Each structure stands twice: as C-alpha cells, then as structure tokens.
Amino acid sequence: MKFEIDATVRRRSGFVLEARFSCDAESLGLVGPSGSGKSTLLDAVAGIERGSRVVLNGVDCSEVPLARRNIGYLTQDALLFPHLSVRRNLSYSPRAGPVEAVARTLRIDHLLDRMPRHLSGGERRRAALARAIASRPRLLLLDEPFSGLDETRRRDAMSLLSEIRRTFQLPLVIVSHWADEIIGLTDWAVRLEEGRVVAAGPSASLLRGGEVQVDNYLKGHVTGPGRLDVGGVELVAAIPEGVGGDVRVAVYAHDILLGTREPRDLSARNVIPVTVLSAPQGGETVLLEVGPPPLRVLVTREATESLGLKSGVRAFAVLKATSFVYLGAA
Amino acid sequence: MSSIALSIMVGLVATIASLPPAVAVAWYLERSKLPGRELVQTLVMLPLVLPPVVVGYLLLRIFSPRGFLGEFLEVAGMPVAFHWLGAVVAAAVVGFPLFVLMVAQAMKAVDCRYETVSRVLGRSAWGTFWRVTLPLSWPGILSGAAIAFARGLGEFGATIVLAGRIPGETETIPLRIYAELDSPGGEARIAGPIAASILLCLACVVGARLLDRWYRKRLELDR
Fold it and tell me: In A, residues 53-82, which contact B (CB 8 Å cutoff)?
C-alpha cells in the first residue's frame, strides 16, 4: 500500500504532531518514545483527528468522514461493547459479513456466544481484533497490540498477526515499543520524536541493533516425538510430549546459522539445505530470507559479504532443536 | 378515580411523555457540539428553581383556552387547563430538569471511546447513539424516569394552578391531602394517601437503585 501522510494535530495540552512521510510498504511500523505522537498519528490516519492529509494507494481520504473511511483500528484497550455478545460485537459493522471464518482464524469461534465480561484479557483482545478484521477494512491500525503479554503469549500473538496479514491480505500499521515486533511484522518503519518524523526506512535497517529479536513462525505437522514436517522439510524441534496434529512453532532469526558448505558433526539437530531468496542492502545487520521452509535469518553485513550470501545462492541453515518454541495447536 | 390511582396515572403518562425529549436534551447537552448548550441548560433547569406556583401560572398562560397553545389544543379536543392532562403537563414540566440531569449524568459516564469505535466500524452518529450510547445509558435513564415519576407524584403548586382541584379528575394525592387538611375531620382520611405517597416514592428510589446495580453488574461497567 502506498502511504502519503501529512498529519497536523494540535492537542489542548500543547502537544503538536507534524508528521509528514510517504512510502510504499505492505505494512508500516511506527516507533518512538512514549509521548512522541504515535497513537495520535494513528488517530489522524483513522480520521478520529481531523485536518490531516491521508492518501492511501493514491486515493485521498482526508475529507472522508470517520464512519466511511473503512479503516480498522485496534486500540490498546479492547473496547468490546459490553452489552453485546462476542458474535454481535464481530458483526457490529454494517460492512461485516459472516463472522465464523474470522473467529476461527483468531481462535475465538468457541467464544462467539459469550458476553465480553466472561472473556480473559487475551480473549478480549483477540475478539476486538476479529471485530476490526470482520469490518473488512482496507487498512488495519494496531496500537501496541502486544503490550502486557508475557514472552510466549507475545510471540504467539505475533504469529497470529503474521498469519492474519497473509490470510486476509491486509496492510497493517503497527505502533510498538518493541523493535522485534516492528521488524517481524512490517517492512517499512517511521520513527517519531516529539511529534515529528526523525527517520524512516526499511524496518530491518532502521531498527537494527543487538536487542532486536526477529521471529519466524512456522506451521507444521507432528510426524513423531519431537519431529515436525514443515512444508515437506523434516525438522527436529523441542515440542512437548504427547502433542500431535498440526502445530505452530516460533524460532528467532538470530538463532539460525548459515553456512555455504554442509557442516558436519554438530550438536544442532537441523541442517537444512536452503536457497537465499532475498538479501537487502544497507545496514550493519542484514535480515536474509531463505527457504524452504521460509525463514528469516539475522546475520551481520560482514558475514554476508565474506560468505557471498546473495539472492539465489545455495546455503545450509543450522537450527538447534531447542531453539524452537512451541506456540500451540494450529 | 381515586387520588392514588389518578396520581399513578398522571405520573406514568408524564414520565413516558418526558422520556424522548429528556434523552434528546441530555444527548444535546452532553455529546453534541452544536452551539447554545449553556442557554438550553439554563432554560431546562428553570422549573427546578422557579416557585412551582409561578411555573403553574406560566403554563396556564400557555395552555388556557386563550393561550397560544391552549386555543389550538382546545380545538383539537385535547383541553389541558383544568383537565387531567393539565396535571400531566405540570408533573412533566416540574420533573423534567431532574430527568435530564440524571440522563445526562448517565451519558457522561459512558466511555466516549465506545462511540468512537462504533464510528470507526462504520456506524453513523445516529446508529452509534441507538446501538451504543442509549443501551449503555439505560441505568441512568431508568433511574431518571423513576425520580421524575416520584417528583410528579408530589407535584402540588403547578398542578393546582394549571389543573385546579377537581375530585376524580385532577385531584392527585398532594391536592387531596391539602383539601382534607382544610376540611373538618379530614385528618382521619389522609392516612391512606400519605402511606401511598411514601410507599410509591420509596419503591421508585429503591427500584431505581436496584435496576442500576443489576444493569451495572450485567455490563460490569464499574470495572
């Protein structure tokens, strides 16, 4: 989606947002310290704050009123209507169609007839996300969608969002304090400070650094104890005993090693022949895409250059069985 | 009709008739961005501070057969002055400020963000009011209705000026008590109306409180 944003918002508190940028990205990340104007910028894009120029895919929707802008918005609080069941929350939008498919994808199909007060915090959030998706938006805005979740739940939620982006072909704008969330889910990022854009660029190069944790989400079928079939590739992964059927696992991009010759006599249980699919330019750290199975691998610029890792090169990906985190049934 | 039955009927009709305008005015005061809100608020609150007899006199000027609305209503077959409808009008006007205040307070308590979410999801301002604001304000609206009803039951000054004291037609509980106290041996006959007054008002206040608690618990609004 092509974004052309020129947002000007003046708050009574004296805060002024003057953010101008344009980019062509599947999904966009907004980063910056607290109070830098990230949520205000989302409000401007959604149309809650008026007076900003918002052009999406060449269509100027600056004058389109809130109700007709057709943008999904998941705020930090779920804000499910407390007087309506989950099903009626999901079908609330006049644009909403049948809600069962969305509910299934978000794993809340068993909660459709419950009232919001009977849901846990995580379930409420998933239901609110389902409600936003069910309204068939052309763009989905997410304000800190994973705040307050523990590490495993956060990785689970990220895998879910990654799946949603793919399944519904939905461009996202994500506000987050976490670089790994932005890199994991978006391809372009904008950094805000004191209401102004101070940097913009590909997410992986804008947010590089030692603390970045980019996740890979894989779906596979359990073929035996600790064994998974992921798209025809057999993997050894530390998954709980007794788990069977289709499962979801996650593995960090920095936990994967790459070599151009097949390594032998390693303790790591997975040595997979892969092809480098893309190798972005620029930055000290590079996020390579390899496959199959589709994996993102975080390596230094120096390593890519000395090994000659560029698009089309055949290599071996090395993964420890214990690097996999079991997220749950698929 | 007994004064108790008449009072209940007058109170109910006045409350039901006041409900839509009270909700509309409360919404205008609490949620609309249109100008003139302070002026409207002052006008709405007038019956609360004016002496009820003055309110009754002003209503009489409007609704008497020579008043600008009274003439028209007389022709339409709906006389108000010195008619049970006069008692309804008096009860509605005097109870209106309390009704509006309570509904406005209830709307103020509704988190505006629910309304924003509704608009973002594609509902119009009217659709949002109907589907979100109104259902979430129900506890306050019901409490307001109960209080307006109780206020209507006790209405005296405006009623006696506008509707007069016609036994069986406009003689509500307070007018009956007043008349009995003024007649020899009447004190013995007011126990019933007084007990009815106290019980009805208690039922209104307690009922409103219980309804409010039940609804809040149902929605977990206090969370």
Answer: 66-73, 75, 77, 79, 81-82
